[in-house]
Amino acid sequence: MAIRVMKFGGTSVADAERIHHAAQLVAQEGEPGGVVTVVSAMSGVTTQLSEAVHAAERGDLGPADHAVLQVRSRFDEAANDLISQPETRAEVREAAHAVLEKFLAVCRSVAVLGEATPRVADAAISCGEPLVGHLLAAHLRELGREAVFVEPEHLVVTDDRFGDASPRLEETRERVEERLKPLLERGVIPVTGGFIGATAEGIKTTLGRGGSDFSAAILGAALPADEVIIWTDVDGVMTADPRRVDGARVIGELTYAEVAELAHFGAKVLHPRTIRPLVERRIPLMIRNSFRPEEKGTRVVSECPGVPSGIRAVTDVGDLSLVIVEGRGMLGVPGIAARTFACVAACEANVLLISQASSEQSICFVIPSSDAECVQRGLEEEFRHEIERRQIDRIRAHEDVAIVTALGHGIRSSAGAAGRVFGAAAEAEVNVVAIAQGSSEYAISLVVGASDQDRAVRAIHREVMCV
Ligand code: ADP
Ligand code: ASP
Ligand code: MG
Description:
Number of strands: 17
Structural class: alpha/beta
CATH class of the largest domain: Alpha Beta
Bound molecules: adenosine-5'-diphosphate, aspartic acid, magnesium ion
């Protein structure tokens, strides 16, 4: 039997009405024994929990108390509407209230210690998903389907990089064999939480904000599934973020490579690491609108034959800094690049791109602004001698830059497409600080000042092909 993984994002499970709708989609589109469901926390909950933990670090427990009251009342309201059986409702409420009590206990200890380590933060911010998981499973049972909530930390095994953990696929596969397969064989619908995993020792981890998409892909690869469906609040992957660009259109079909670049360069619709587990097994990924299931959505596959090369979408990411290590004497000094990126790694900064230098006398790269100070300090220390000897003239960080990326198959080899990107930027009077040496033939990236970001996105969007 075909197996589908269906993931519902925060807005798709925001309240009783949305959870009911999600349950209907699961019941309609998944055969018993052929569907695994992954849920996010209700929209806004993870952010609220995260802010509360950070306030607790400063000794302020007010936001934690407030978050628990608010989340509990959202949960209770939904439970009243979705679960008519008093016993089941009491059971589910008890489980949810215990999760929230634990959250409060964690926040209290954070307040005492004055610090939330990444491990402790993960224990706290992972409290939103199980609440929805319990609700959806119970509601599916009310609709006459056999369904159970399976704790995600019993399924997804990860490394111990708290806050941004990576899955261990082999161990995850074993867990899936042990815990999900028998349920599917009995025709039961497993419902689990996205975003969450645990180390092999059982300590909870999270996969990074927005990580429920990644969870769906990890489980999809581990099963393996025949299809992974991401149910969200837009009609699919669009030519630009529809909240920011008027006239953004749905793209019917994209390749894994195109979507991976799109997500890497800021399209929030998909967690950037979602594609990787699916590529090897060529598991198709669908992005669909849970508010408008009649729409076809976007299908992501290995190849889209027949699509001409050109600009298919534009995306952007802000709050970045461009760091430049420059000096005329650098040319003859071996190992500068290796030492530069060792400093970046020491700050655990994620390099979004290495930009094309105008000569070999500088190295430029873009990192999140939050890491810029650490990286710049590290580089100044590392290259103290070279700076004294004038082999390196200076290390600069341009703050407040953004990367605007035009995407499409064959875009870099198509002279016309590149010309259109630069032409559009020039016409909109966008000052291009640097041009990216994109990692693939699917993207051309421009580094622009933050004040030019929106203008650049809109100008390049006008060049998107009409297909
Ligand atoms: P979910 O809670 O379902 O995971 P997200 O808010 O994480 O949903 O992602 C969906 C949002 O991504 C959309 O509402 C949209 O504003 C944003 N988005 C950004 N870029 C794009 C794009 N290219 N196509 C579609 N949506 C995009
Ligand atoms: N609830 C988590 C977050 O808000 C995961 C997700 O929604 O994908 O980041
Ligand atoms: Mg998301």
